[in-house]
Amino acid sequence: MSSPSAAQAAIALGANLGDCRATLEAALAALGTSPGVRVLARSRWYRSAPVGPPQPDYVNGCALLAVALEPEALLERLLATERRFGRVRGERWGPRHLDLDLLLVGDQRLASPHLTLPHPRMAERAFVLVPLAEIAPAWIDPVSGQSVAELAAALRGEGGLMALEHEQTLAALEP
Predict the structure, then answer these.
(1) Tens digit of pLDDT for each residue in 22-35?
(2) Which residues have a catalytic role annotated?
(3) Contact 37, 67 (CB under 8 A)
(4) pLDDT tens, 140-164?
């Protein structure tokens, strides 16, 4: 399969086991040195209540990537990165060292057995939309036709989000 020209992708990152912020920063750095992937921006980190069984709070954020990979290949890269940082898939919505979700790739819509774009639950999750709105407020969701900022505004106040930092720097991501 040939590689496409660089497309923009949005991912969500989360963790609630171990040193979450360090893991999220290291995962972004690893992705940024991965062939065909360049980190363009990331949101602040947020603390959020977990979805699912009782477990510790999550640290969540989003990042924009320039990718020269097909969406399925990018998903595989994300899953490999999760495994590298100790992710073991067990209980659905259970605690994890690293969770990487592919949210959007350009304006693509895709429904395959392994990947749905845009992410099917993105519009329901403040812990995804609020950080994504920091770095891509004008991105249009190809399903609803609404901007990320509009979708995030509809969920403000939900999920008990608390920003953990104030700067939006890529300094820690650059090799």
Answers:
(1) 999 999 999 999 99
(2) 87, 96, 99, 101
(3) yes
(4) 999 999 999 999 999 876 666 788 8
Distance CA 53, CA 153 (A): 27
User: Quick one: tokens of 154?
Assistant: 């509809």
Reduced 3-state DSSP string for the chain: CCCCCCEEEEEEEEECCCCHHHHHHHHHHHHHCCCCEEEEEECCCEEECCCCCCCCCEEEEEEEEEECCCHHHHHHHHHHHHHHCCCCCCCCCCCCCCEEEEEEECCCCEECCCCEECCCCHHHCHHHHHHHHHHCCCCECCCCCCEHHHHHHHHCCCCCCEECCCCCCCCCCCC
Place of tokens 């969920």: 155
